[in-house]
Design goal:
Layout (H helix, E strand, L loop, with lengths): L2 E6 L5 E7 L7 E6 L7 H12 L2 E6 L15 H13 L2 H16 L4 E6 L1 H12 L5 E5 L16 E6 L7 H11 L5 E4 L16 H17 L1
Parallel strand pairs: 3-4, 3-5, 5-6, 6-7, 7-8
Antiparallel strand pairs: 1-2, 2-4
Helix pairs in contact: 3-4
Length: 222
């Protein structure tokens, strides 16, 4: 069963993280980076999925400096609150907390990172700025296109929904491949933003299953 633990950031601040040990023989560690909604049931479910797949998984609460234990609903008020926290959280601070998670896991083997929405952007940035990661899987991050020139330091893949109204998948693919033609960019037909999230209004099961399989393959080969 998962538990909430405390880690210390580079600035000395102690933030919480949802953590779960692997259910099967350990394959490595996975850092799960949240959507804008905080460490909600969907993030916890993803941590559990990775634990069941044989990974020690951890999801840092990246808004703790602003609001401890923040979780919001997937409604207009919740979206507004989550976006406000994301915009007010310095990217360098979030990446430093991801690095603290890497340090926590790395003594026991390789460390991979996966993130969704806000976390998808941070995963792409972490792949290019946080040393010591074995692999990265970025899901529908809005900052990927603007940072497409950033060179990943580890094997990295990108997942996008073709019907995502806020992220033009074809444009992201062109931007990334202009600089890094070797980086796989997977575009899922019939899938929108948040297709990995199992909330009824967003979940696209076929796309989610395929993206998870590709991510597991990447992590296992890293």
């Amino acid at each position: 069963m998962g538990e909430t633990i405390t880690l210390k950031g580079a600035d000395g601040f102690e933030f919480s993280a949802y953590h779960e040990q692997p259910f099967t023989p350990r394959k490595g560690g996975v850092i799960v980076i949240q959507e804008i909604f905080g460490i909600d049931r969907h993030v916890r479910a993803d941590v559990e999925r990775w634990a069941k797949a044989g990974y020690e998984a951890i999801a840092p609460a990246l808004y703790d400096r602003r609001e401890r234990d923040f979780v919001s609903a997937h409604d207009p008020d919740g979206i507004a609150a989550g976006v406000a926290h994301a915009r007010a959280t310095p990217l360098a601070q979030a990446l430093a907390d991801i690095a603290a998670c890497r340090d926590f896991l790395s003594a026991r083997g390789k460390v991979c990172v996966v993130g969704y929405c806000y976390g998808g952007s941070l995963t792409w940035l972490a792949a290019g700025k946080v040393e010591g990661l074995a692999a990265a899987s970025s899901y529908y991050g809005s900052l990927v296109a603007a940072n497409a020139a950033l060179k990943p330091l580890c094997p990295t893949i990108i997942h996008l929904g073709h019907t995502d109204p806020g992220i033009k998948a074809d444009e992201v693919e062109r931007a990334v491949h202009e600089h890094h033609p070797e980086v796989p960019v997977y575009i899922y037909e019939g899938a929108g933003h948040g297709f990995n999230n199992e909330s009824p209004e967003r979940y696209a099961e076929e796309a989610a299953d395929l993206a998870r399989a590709r991510t597991r393959e990447l992590f296992e080969s890293a």
